[in-house]
Amino acid sequence: MTALRVGLVGCGRVGVVHLEAIARAAGVQAIAVSDVDAARAEEVAARFGVARVVPGLDALVASDVHVVAVCVPPRDHFAVASAALAAGRHVLVEKPLTLDPAEAADLVAAVPAGVVACTGFNLRAHRQVAAARRLLAGGALGRLSMIRTQWTSAPAPPGWRSAPGQGGDPLWAMGVHHLDLWRHLTGEEPGAVRAAGDGDALAVSARTPDGVLLATTLAAGTSDSNEVELIGERGRLTLTLYRADGPHWAPVGVAAGGVGARLRGALRSAGTLPAQARIARGGGDFRLSFAAEWEAMRDAVLHGAPPHATLADGQAAVALAAAAEVALRDDRPVEVAE
């Protein structure tokens, strides 16, 4: 079977996460890496058994890779992805697609015919998100009234993530994932965006044309959590994206945290312990979602399957995040098209 050949640009923290995922993914192989820090590229290549360290972007996109994985800091996404697309390479660009809506639109317009160009929204490939989509499609929740999400993290590490305007703040580093899930789970384009808080702790909200309330809270400088709650007329579904024990279903009439619900949850959790152990050995649902993302990329490039998240999806999330920035600054609702 032909393997998907990947050339990865950017050997920092996110690049390593992708190389770990590629090593787990069936039918995907990293064959080349490149980084502005040549010693770092050599060390990472040796760690993951990558055959080639390529000295520059031009040489990498001119090589025999199928896909260029763009894992550089967000400010450089546009330049690297543009070069790869100009060379006719398929691309997977880490989120956020860009920090500038105009650059995001330019990248979407630059995709040649026949090229698979994806945004790195690994949560779309997350086991629990896929389960939620199936339940929604089957009508298990009834009419959806609200999606409420939360993502919190430790303080940003030193380097570009701690510098203002570089995409390391909660809105761009975490929030764009959940803003994408607004669209992915509802199938609708959100309306005017509202935001409150500051750069380190904020809440972002909107409504869909069908009236679903969308609310996301984000904070850095605390413990880690990553949860999504879908509230419908038949009950509530909670996704615990950093844990292996979800999703959790609470039908109408069952009190959240009640004794009966906790007992049923404990029994259900005990029954899934073998599956949870397998997930834990693979790095947990969150890490495994990156491998699933690469397998989806393999199927799109080699077998013509629909891409899991297009550059247009990335562009839409950039537009929502940019609207949230303006809403936060000006303390007013902001239409996404502004």
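^ that was protein a. below is b, sequence first then the tokens
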Amino acid sequence: MKDITSPVLIKLKGILFLLVGLLAAALLLIEQPSLKVAVLLGIAVWCFCRFYYFAFYVIERYVDSTYRFSGLWSFFAYLVRRRKHESRAARAGSNASTDGRADKHDKTDSRNP
């Protein structure tokens, strides 16, 4: 599928996501109108938003600067590839999972020449 490049279509897509989400939430609250359901729905939505933020921003900025987010499938594929890479490095007994970067615990002690 081709990427959307039109600013108008991108904004329309965002508005449609918002409307569908609001409709789904409204239908759930109509089906089970209680404070408990409303609070749990709010928590679920907030947690999914935080996970999405984690998947594209936190990983790219703070964990692996070589990773470029292109969707949740891309993120899950990244996790699988990284896990395979780390397990191979562990079996080989190397510290390849850090990509050659020094860990804060790898510093040499200046007291021991």
